[in-house]
Amino acid sequence: MNVKRPPSLKKGDTIGMVAPARKITFREIEKAISLIKSVGFQVIYRDELFAASDQFSGNDNQRAAYFQSLLDDNLVKAIFAARGGYGSVRIIDKLDFSRFVENPKWIIGYSDMTVFHNHINRNFGIGTLHATMPVNFAGNTDEALNGLFEVLKGGFPDYSLPGHPLNRQGRGSGILAGGNLSVLYSLCGSVSFPETEGKILFLEDLDEYLYHIDRMMTALKRAGALKTLSGLIVGGMTEMNDNEVPFGKTAEEIIREAVDEYDYPVCFGFPAGHIQDNRPLIMGAEVEMEVGEKVKVGFLK
Questions:
Q1: Contacts for 183-186 with beta carbons within 8 Å, 24 or more apart?
Q2: At what angle do helices 251-258 and 210-222 cross, to 10 degrees?
Q3: CA dihedral of 3, 9, 177, 159, whole degrees rounded to 10
Q4: CA distances (Å), origin 250, targets 167, 247, 255, 257, 262
Q5: Which residues lie closer than 8 Å to 275 by C-beta, 6 or more apart?
Q6: How many CB atoms lie within 10 A of CB 153?
Q7: Which residues share a beta bridge with 43?
Q8: Is 117 helix (H, G, I), strand (E, B) or coil?
Q9: How far apart are CA 144 and CA 172, in angstroms?
């Protein structure tokens, strides 16, 4: 499928703010809103953004209705998820993307937003942006924030990285899919799970037990999702947990073992995920990767 890139933003364009998962307060994103305005964009949100229902930002119907209003608003040129958490998978099937398909706009976020990236990329052939979210702006690096806004203005990321002892050398190209491993695992068997043949798969995760990383990677392998990739990019595997009896491998080692029998290039330590230096990735876009003593990852125009 030829993936369509949403239009680039111009100075004065409007960005909508949504919370499809965990609840958020204005105080948590106040400075981020100011930053977005300082780079030349308008920001809109309604009181519904700050709704609360247990851990969620409103019940499922409320969150879906608010997200729908931003999808359908032609004045909104991009939609930021204010934060992640858990909950997007509960509303994805409540949304109507027909007007979004007619007038694509950037959907931006990471972690739980993996649901939207893969659902939109697979079903509608429209690119999305895996990048930091307003709740994280205060701790992000300049490279992460500047890179985010450069993509929104029309840029194409191009990365050069140091090597990693677990890397597997080689060259590969393909459409970029994936995101948060735990969320991706939860999409298995659904229309939101990516078709991985010939794709470059990106994975990252946070606060998981090592045995669960192994269980998820084994599940993806048994489902055939790892066999025919063109490449694998692994970002932050952050704050992993272990049991009293150690699992015996790091998260990176578990992932490397899961793909040992294949021959595509594998890159570890990519600066994206639950880290401060969370660089932007255009999901659904064509990517070239070259893994040698150093690593190059570039997006094709």
A1: 183/88, 183/89, 183/111, 183/112, 183/114, 183/115, 184/114, 184/118, 184/220, 185/216, 185/219, 185/220, 186/89
A2: 20
A3: 120
A4: 14, 8, 9, 11, 20
A5: 235, 236, 238
A6: 15
A7: 15
A8: helix
A9: 25
The whole-angstrom separation of Cα 179 and Cα 163 is 21
Domains of the chain: 14-152 (3.40.50.10740), 158-299 (3.50.30.60)
Q: pLDDT (tens digit, 9 = 90+) per residue, 170-226?
A: 999 999 999 999 999 999 999 999 999 999 999 999 999 999 999 999 999 999 999
Residue 176 CA: distances (Å) to CA of 129, 231, 281, 298: 11, 9, 8, 11
pTM: 0.97
Using CA atoms, how far apart are residues 173 and 3, in angstroms rounded to an integer? 15
Helix (H) or strand (E) holding 233: strand 231-238
- Per-residue tokens: 218: 């084994």
| Dist CA 191 CA 141 (whole Å) | 35
N residues, the chain = 301
Reported as a single tens digit per residue, the pLDDT across 84-127 is 999 999 999 999 999 999 999 999 999 999 999 999 999 999 99
